[in-house]
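To assess whether the prediction recovers the assembly geometry, we first specified each molecular entity separately, as shown.
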Amino acid sequence: MTGDLLSVSGLTKAYPGVVANDAVSFAIREGEVHALLGENGAGKSTLVKMIYGLVTPDSGTMTLHGAPYVPAEPRAARAAGVAMVFQHFSLFDAMSVAENVALGMEEPPALRDLATRIRDVSETYGLPLDPFRTVGDLSAGERQRVEIIRCLLQDPKLLIMDEPTSVLTPQEVDILFKTLRKLTAEGVAILYISHKLEEIRALCDHATILRLGKTVGTCIPRETSARAMAEMMVGSAFAAPERTGRTPGPVAIEVAGLCMASPGQFGTALKDISFAVQEGEVLGIGGVAGNGQDELLAALSGEALAEAGAIRLKGAGIGRLGPAERRARGLLTAPEERLGHAAAPDMSLIENTVLTAAAREKLMHNGFLRWGAAEAFTRKIITAFDVRTPGPRTAARALSGGNLQKFVIGREVLQRPEVLVVNQPTWGVDAAAAAAIRQALLDLAANGAAVICISQDLDELMEISDRFCALNEGRLSAIRVAQGLSVEEIGLMMGGAHGMEVAHV
Amino acid sequence: MDFGSINPVLLLASLMVAATPILLAALGELVVERTGVLNLGVEGMMIIGAICGFAVAVNTGSPVLGFVAAAGGGALLSLLFALLTQFALANQVASGLALTLFGLGLSALLGQGYVGIKPPPVDKLDIPLLSDIPFLGPVLFSHDLMVYFGLGLVAAVWAVLKYTRAGLVLRAVGENHDAAHALGYKVVRIRVLAILFGGACAGLGGAYISLIRVPQWTEGMTAGAGWIALALVVFASWKAGRVLLGAWIFGGVTVLQLNLQAAGIAIPVEYLSMSPYLITILVLIIMSADRSRAPASLGRIFHASQ
Amino acid sequence: MLKLEKRPQPSQVWTYLTPLLAVMITMIAGGALFAALGKDPVAAITTIFWEPLFGEFAFYYRPQLLIKGAPLVLIAIGLSLGFRAGIWNIGAEGQYIIGALAGAGVGLAFYPTESWVIFPLMVLAGALGGWIWAMIPAILKLRFGTNEILVSLMLVYVAEKLLAAMALGLMKNPEGMGFPGSRNLRQYESAHNAELITGSGMHWGVVAAMIAVIFAYVLLNRHILGYHIRLTGQAPRAARFAGVNPARLVLFCLGTSGALAGLAGMFEVAGPAGQVSIDFNVGYGFTAIIVAFLGRLHPVGILLAGLLMALTYIGGELAQSNLGLPAAAIQLFQGMLLFFLLAVDVLTNYRIRPRRAEGVA
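The predicted structure of the complete assembly is given in tokenized form:
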């Protein structure tokens, strides 16, 4: 086609203790989809933030259309034709779609005109959206549309997309890809950040692979095997988790007709959820983010109370019991958000051990804490789960995401749960740690525990689940045996395309 | 006891006057909270405004210069809060309290030579014709300029927040400071400006007490008006129009209890003068039924890391 | 330009150094303030910080340190529990007043009967009075979700009015020849919170403060409830996940701080102050907020901070009489201390670095 749109050479950015980007160089051509591939922590986010003007590089140069490109702030980047769709959306819940779009534009027209333009663009690209709805009420997929439309209204030359498919069903991914192809046909270049190899092979023209902040190679994804790309990305191969054959025992936990009102203005209500998990079994619960995952975990952990009989643990109704009582009975949980929910950021690992293990591991006596015992149990977690930390007295926030997640999962697994519920156990975790965590969950089930794994990572769920179901707008789909499910079937269980139309290409 | 001595026209007219200080302070705080910052130092900024305005008005003989100085003094004090919370990333609750304690001490020191002095009088703005209308004239159209300034400010704050780009950005910062930062808005700068505006408004409110409402200087004379202004923002669910309504209610209660005192009702003065504070609590309880959301980032510390 | 860099974990060293640094900066800024008022700054600072401890009349002032420090420490210990959990009781001044009124009320009701049970009953009444006054914001918060900062503060003004009403009405000394104020409890043996060792300043309030410090230390460091208080303040969501009942915590923190403030008021009215009068409260409830923060919300720190703040009260009075320093200057001085403390606190969690030259080569 044509020449380079953006070229980046020798970009370096260091943070205390870590070089996020070390002399990164690559080029994007006009009208191509260019993948930026790498593990969590490989430096993808820092790199795109520099291109978008959010972070100033320590050294290195960028050129756009052959001219030097030094965006001092996102405004300058937008003016130069660079737009970005964020992974964690930069949206304002309490405001309308139109207001959100206006905030991302340099000189927005009057709100009424803007609403018309939003309707036009959303029709053209098959992204239906009501400009006057409040963003907090939208689904994850619709929220992404707001971000995309915000970008499209500025006629970008380069569109940066940070992990856009993590919030979409397979069907919605297809629609997104059609929209993106339409855009490239119009000459827009797309910088596509992901760690999902099959997606990149389906969509992208070129790929640049990052590892530990360095460019380790480039390839043409259509002509490269997923395995070859994975090796470049990770640097070495990992053993896939081993499953031993197991015979499920009696029902450990049963949820029947669980209903729960939405906890906040923008939460999801749980509607008539029923399932049962047997001892030694792993139930995978999929679904797009924001369809009730957090609420379901809260209902199971005891942070939100249900009717007594709605949740039964080994036959006994525990719906009215709080987290501590449920733990005492063997129901343990690990929420998605590590910092601030599963662990207190400023507290030491020892103190974070006490958070859930105080009663079960006898770390207290008549209410008085036994810090010595707590430290011993913390050390046990650190050793058993290979948590990389200077010591048990280190603050939780000082650990990397993967290490903290290993600590959190380890803390629950080592308390010998009879039922363990985890939400997004490997989110934002590097491949080695993710493999270790999945193995730990499988081992737990092999030893007779019931495991419920809520996750948005379908590959993960297919790898470890015996049976699979999906959450969609607070409802649970039918439960199916995981083996042999096709991607289409899974997508339909997740709610299909959620009423999205296909782009009229 | 003589209820006949309570004149409804005077009552309503003085309600407008009694409402003005908390109206001004609450409007300023509303803007501050809309950017996601909770400044509990309103009381301190008001009392600094009260003494700055009083001292300058006495020394120059000009109430106008007094009000200008009060706005400046309040803004200057709020700058300390801005430095603490926006640059040193200190806890906003503690910093606000510090501001109040500091302001009370500083005002007492500044005001030493001013006890017992009368400030220059502020002219009433008798609007020709309108002020001659029976009933409505004295109630609405024969006040000092600051009363109308307060009303104008309500309209201005409402319009700016609702219709302008600046207002949109301001609300965005208060709603989600991380997202606003990601879009390239200067979160800290916007917040500092809002804090200064809040300080200036509180200063004006304080000066209104010392120059017009009382008018003289005594230590601690704001007597909780700043805290009532804070409650007013909650009462108003962060909406400018409802701040006005709330200010009138509080003004009305204050004026009514003063009138009852004067009328010699058989309740001791001490119990009557509790009423504005009790009403504030009552209003907070009633408003709790309205689950309108506070700005989502209210009180959270913002640090642009990575 | 400087920029802040978040530390991977809070600095231990700065945790201890920041209060000292804040005191030093306050001394310098305070000196400048006193100089601006036309006083010799060195003389003023030594009068405040040195004279009461080691000066000619130190024998008189040292006991005062305990008398002024006890209510500050007692109140600040209670406040620190709530502050740690993110529960902001700003109305300790009101609880202090109500505690004093309740304690004095019981004492005055028994007048002139002499019995050993009267004083213990007054202690109970004082604690109960403060507790009830603090339960109002607690219950309103739980039942209606009202803001405890505003409610507890409004109740300070209500308590002040109530104090005035009592001093002028119900509790007025019938033999006081029309002067406002109650009977003097120091002249009523069964109700008098007397010095335990003559000339030491040691009274029951000091003992109570010591017990409160030890109690708080054990609670926060050894007990699961103290752990839950810290956890709730640092990560409320994690606390709910751990199984903490936030409502119980609100009741406990507000109740304890109210009871301690009430005790402080009761010991004060029955001892150093002696009577219920219009100007009985001198702002201990607000100064205790400074003490709590200066002591880093740590029981031992609060003990030291309370003594330091008592020193500024005593030294301030001394500077007032010896150097003619205005009382307001001391108040301002105390306010400055909290300011500087909050400002230098940033060093505990952040590192300050020079910002590298902007732009790209």
